[in-house]
Amino acid sequence: MSNPNEVKSTLKPAYDHVIVGGGVAADKAARAIREEAPDASVLIISDVSDGPLYRPGLSKDLWLKADATLEGIDLGTTETGAELLLGTTVTALDPEAHAVTTSDGQQVGYGRLLLATGAAARHIDTPDDDRIVYYRNADDYRHLRSLVSEGIRVAIVGGGYIASEIAAGLAAAGADVSVHFPDSRLLEQMFPDSITSHLAEVYESKGISLNSGFFLSSIHAGRRLTLESRSGEKVEADVVVLGLGAVPNVQLAEEAGLEMEQGGVSVDETLATSAPDVYAAGDIATFSDPILGRRRVEHMANAERSGDAAGRTMAGTRTEYRYTPLFWSDLFDDGYEALGETRTNHRIEEVWNDAHDAAVLYYLDGDVVRGVLMWNTWGAVPKAREVMQASKEGRLKVSELAGQITPGG
Known about the structure:
FAD/NAD(P)-binding domain; alpha/beta; 10 helices; FAD/NAD-binding_dom; about 20% helix; Enolase-like, domain 1; seven-stranded mixed beta sheet; single chain; ferredoxin-NAD+ reductase activity; about 30% strand
């Protein structure tokens, strides 16, 4: 892919704004800075080789839509006038000197800095083999796409968000897909039995083999790859994709002495960190959700909104981040939008339509709604926020939940 985001050849000694990270939060911050301070200089430093992309496309459209391309999900960040330094890691942050040091030894000063370093795929000890893929960025997509063809046997390890999405995508691309996970059902940590049993039927109808109770012990690389479980079960595959969750990239912030909280970088209402003129947004930021309190969220909407808010404050327009992020996914012909703590360790109140193909799920801690998931139900996210707020304040009883959002709307 020809990259429209090539950096200018010579860096300045300092910039008004430096953004560390090359994802959606970085793009939104650059756009907000440009709106608020058109003449300000902006540098984005990213350790990946592509400019900011619409990340959901990597596990959805690029596999499911024949005409989808990497160019099509490029966010066009250079339109903002920001310079992009790609394939470069920031190795040190010195808040006192207002400077960062890059992996190639350059030191760059800043007036204000945004940490938008995102998260990395969780790794385990595996053989060094190109057929074993951790899936996170565009380079991972290119590599996996080069390995996949009709009938190639792909084993996916993991039973969560990314594993469920990439399984659907690889099946659509013609691969022979199996998914191996420790729980009894795919996405069991999020969905009750009413949905996980339906998804099991759907996935298996698409030729995807679901293998529950599989605790990975090791991977052996030979002519084919062999997965071995703790119980001794062995599975052969041509390609293995490991979808084991994500780890926030906070090492730079930790080494710089920034205050940490809940595994992320602690920020105030304007996304400012404990260091002067240093902000954090997206996956790494632990912020105050107006409904749910202090939390860290690894989803697209949070990256977009927090990046925008941080950029505006950095450019001189103080902007408070008061947002309860949504997230969503499409799983073949089904889909959902959700807010909050959609975990099955909460009690779940399920409200289904008469056809039993759409539902609203309320996730309760005691009598307080901590999450809402709208299954095949659209356009109700604002109402779901109202329900959560009213429940938090004691204005809404559990017995009244069934009448709040119409399933299938």
